[in-house]
Amino acid sequence: MLTTSTIILTLSSLAPVLGTTTYKIKDTYIGPSFLNGFDHWPYSDPTHGRVNYVDQDTAIAQNLTFAEGKTFVMRADDTTVLDPNGPGRNSVRIQSKNAYSQSVMVLDITHMPDGCATWPAWWTTASDWPTGGEIDIIEYVNGQAPNHMTLHTSPNCTQPQSRRMMGTTTSTDCDASVNYNEGCGVQSSYSSSAGSGFNSIGGGWYAMERTSSSISIWFWPRNSPTVPSTIKAGSKTVNPGTFGTPDATFVNSQCDLNSHFEPHNIIFDLTLCGDWAGNNYPSNCPSTCVDYVNNNPQSFSDAYWDIAGLRVYE
Ligand SMILES: *[C@@H]1O[C@H](CO)[C@@H](O)[C@H](O)[C@H]1NC(C)=O
Ligand SMILES: *[C@@H]1O[C@H](CO)[C@@H](O)[C@H](O)[C@H]1NC(C)=O
């Protein structure tokens, strides 16, 4: 919800609106509130990973999902040798019950899944994909930093090569039906935005702002001197005008964001191999991707999310 002062400013159109929007806290997910605010998604992985997504009861019973105090952990099973003809490695995918449009999402995260074969993602999407659009905020494969930020849409949505952001454009057509659904991507400017570099510093904060004119993503490493005080404090209001230059931004000059993006649910998942991690399994990882997943449970001890909090502002 916009504040009164923002509405007056917007209606007056005399001052630039950019950077003046204050958002108020709508939903806070910390520890056990993830179990109420999100559903576990126990279905077959649409990206063909070597995983078996389990329901909430199973995830808790096997301690793949752990929610206590201010801690929320989601992991892949790291003890079971798999039958090559049986289901994939147990893992977790969760989806928020609430959906959001214009909003700011702030994630305080201390660890993300790392290692060969892993493909973790924090993203938002609508039920009618790709018509309702997809925003990938955290995504990387096989432990290879940095983070990649990507939109996937229906046709007629592209991005200019050059935008006001820190990261590097890797592709410009967001249309999911072309280029093998590569989407329009940005590679993070921070080597510590993913993987072992991220985990070794205790992670940090990610923020995503979605409006009808832009979608922007910021990352602040845990030890960064530039973390906005409102982000660090988990304040009741935030103003992206104080966030600095985004790591990635997507604009509406060649893409009508209103018609390409519907209200989105929030998803966290961890798949293994599959369309991206499996098809790009690097030569410095052992064996083949699927064999590695089947036979080396102990190698997945670092394949977990540890989330200190998710705050959604509107
Ligand atoms: C479950 O996972 C949490 C988080 O990693 C850990 O602290 C806890 O010791 C685990 N519990 C058991 C019974 O293994
Ligand atoms: C493509 O999008 C532009 C706005 O970005 C719009 O003016 C145009 O009509 C669209 N074309 C089609 C074929 O939908």
From TrEMBL:
Acetylation as UniProt keyword: no
Ranges of residues in domain GH16: 36-285
GO biological processes: glucan catabolic process
SUPFAM superfamilies: Concanavalin A-like lectins/glucanases
Keywords, alphabetical: Glycosidase, Hydrolase, Signal
Oxidoreductase recorded as keyword: no
Signal peptide feature range: 1-19
GO molecular function: hydrolase activity, hydrolyzing O-glycosyl compounds
InterPro entries: Beta-glucanase-like (IPR000757), ConA-like_dom_sf (IPR013320), Glycosyl_Hydrlase_16 (IPR050546)
UniProt cross-references to Pfam families, sorted A to Z: GH16_XgeA
Family the UniProt entry places it in: Belongs to the glycosyl hydrolase 16 family.
UniProt cross-references to PANTHER family, sorted A to Z: GLYCOSIDASE C21B10.07-RELATED (PTHR10963:SF24), GLYCOSYL HYDROLASE-RELATED (PTHR10963)
Protein's UniProt name: Glycoside hydrolase family 16 protein
Organism from which the protein derives: Calocera viscosa (strain TUFC12733)
